[in-house]
Design a protein that fits this description.
Elements: E1 5-7, H1 14-30, H2 41-52, H3 54-61, E2 67-73, E3 76-85, E4 98-105, H4 114-129, E5 134-139, H5 143-151, E6 155-164, E7 167-176
Parallel strand pairs: 4-5
Antiparallel strand pairs: 1-2, 2-3, 3-4, 5-7, 6-7
């Protein structure tokens, strides 16, 4: 385990949270020891800026109906989870359903149990705040994440294309309930 504290993020965490999200996305999906998806540089940069800039992160932290948690060890953010009203394009999904939008654990903090702690907390919050099923979008090539979500009762309910700039990732839509 770790001595990290799980807490809601504060507005002043936006810069560090954005940097963690950006680096974790690169480490997971772009790096050679990750999935090595060959995103065109302009598409990747546009996506990273839109998703993880300090301004974009601050705006997402203030979104009504969304919930966030960070794993903080002595002021260093190691991991985070973000949930909120569903945005996935599935015919049975509504904005009153809850979606796990991101569960990111920084490379150096993987294996410390932080992902499991954040996932458990996220699912508890989602169950308490949904008016129907729970949803997760996951990259079709991320078998490890799919296996994890399967263990928590999620099943494949559909597919869609997730934009990374003009590039489109093939994603699975998972549902529980």
């Amino acid at each position: 385990m770790t001595d990290a504290v799980i807490r809601p993020p504060r507005p002043e965490d936006a810069e560090a949270l954005g940097a963690l999200g950006r680096q974790t996305f690169i480490d997971t999906f772009v790096a050679e020891d990750g999935f090595a998806i060959p995103y065109p540089a302009d598409d990747l940069e546009a996506f990273l800026d839109a998703s993880f800039s300090t301004g974009a992160t601050a705006k997402k932290l203030a979104e009504p109906g969304a919930a966030w948690w960070v794993a903080d060890r002595n002021g260093e953010l190691l991991a985070f989870a973000n949930t909120g009203p569903n945005t996935l394009p599935h015919p049975d999904a509504t904005p009153g359903n809850m979606e796990l939008r991101r569960l990111y654990v920084g490379k150096a903090a993987q294996g410390l149990g932080l992902g499991t702690r954040l996932l458990t907390l996220s699912l508890e919050w989602m169950e308490a705040n949904t008016d129907g099923p729970l949803w997760i979008g996951v990259w079709s090539g991320n078998r490890k994440a799919q296996k994890l979500y399967d263990a928590y009762g999620f099943t494949k309910a559909g597919e869609y294309l997730y934009p990374v700039g003009a590039w489109r990732d093939h994603e699975f839509i998972l549902r529980r309930g």
